[in-house]
From TrEMBL:
The keyword Transmembrane helix applies. InterPro entries: DedA_domain (IPR051311), VTT_dom (IPR032816). This is DedA family protein. The chain crosses the membrane at residues 12-30, 50-72, 136-157, 169-190. It comes from Paenibacillus gyeongsangnamensis. The lineage of its organism: Bacteria, Bacillati, Bacillota, Bacilli, Bacillales. Pfam families: VTT_dom. Keywords: Membrane, Transmembrane, Transmembrane helix. Residues 30-156 form the VTT domain. Belongs to the DedA family. It comes from the Bacteria.
Amino acid sequence: MQDKLLYMIAHFGYIGIFGALVLGIIGLPVPDETLMTFAGFLISKGKLHYLPAVLVSAVGSFAGMSVSYFIGHTFGYPLLEKYGSKIHITKEKLDHVQHWFERFGKFAVTIGYFIPGVRHLSAYFAGISKWPYRTFFLYAAPGAMIWTVTFITLGTYIGEHWLVVTETIHKYLLFVIVILIVAAIGIWYIRK
């Protein structure tokens, strides 16, 4: 799938970037960081321009987040209450996640772009939590811009080595996420 998406970006340019990022943010298994780093590589080769690529990527990723937000806002909580027990989501767990999201959700929406999984779920939970769209926009839009600038700029500077560097980032990012999860569980356990 990744090769097809990279071809789509190379062939369709900005429209391909936009479409791939919308689909990736909604939750399809699209390697978003890889796509943006590849776009940066295409910039280094003169096939795309930096500013339009950043703007299209930010708008595409934010559009995907907005779709996720509206799905969560419209269907989220009632759907999870009704069918959540089939996937072991009890009302207590849902209330616990919602309480956590009330405390840390703004941070999760902005910084969550950099963490696969959190990026996908934070918009759904913002919708489920019935955030006003304006509040969601104020936290999601800057996150989209920072995220896209980071990876497109990285791809622009590393050029031919974009794939190796992206794979290395994913490898160590997963390691960092595991450490953070273990630390959070440890803190939770100590407090209990």
